[in-house]
Design a protein that fits this description.
Layout (H helix, E strand, L loop, with lengths): L2 H8 L20 E4 L4 E4 L5 E5 L7 E4 L3 E9 L4 E11 L32
Parallel strand pairs: 1-6
Antiparallel strand pairs: 2-4, 3-5, 5-6
Length: about 120
């Protein structure tokens, strides 16, 4: 065995190769929230950078008002993934039930409450 064989035998090393896959970003379907609710979008991952529609760069974004929200995620290999979600808010219904009414004995008052996705308690 020559000196070069001994050199190769003494200096061999092992290493792991990890293939980087593009990040996955999925906000789900567009959604509707009730007033006062918030929606947290979390796209945290390892070795990623983030860009939201308002130029913020955190991995978590809290939605408090209606609108169209998107994020762009970039990994260390330069893969870019984007997702968008449209968030709407159910507004509080308007009514005129709080107005005082004076009715005579023969009068009729019709209360009409037609609001989608609502339940009523009379």
């Amino acid at each position: 065995m020559g000196a070069s064989d001994e050199y190769v035998r003494n200096y061999l090393d092992t290493f792991n190769v990890v293939l980087n896959q593009a990040p996955i970003v999925n906000f789900g379907n567009d959604t509707t929230l009730c007033l006062g609710e918030t929606l947290n979008l979390n796209i945290a991952g390892t070795n990623l950078s983030y860009l939201w529609q308002d130029n913020s760069a955190d991995s978590v974004y809290t939605i408090q008002q209606q609108g169209i929200y998107w994020a762009q995620v970039i990994d260390v290999c330069g893969n870019i993934v984007t997702d968008t979600i449209n968030v709407a808010f159910n507004l509080l219904p308007e009514n005129d039930v709080n107005d005082n009414k004076i009715l005579c004995l023969e009068d009729t008052l019709i209360l009409n409450a037609i609001i989608s996705n609502a339940t009523y308690l009379w």
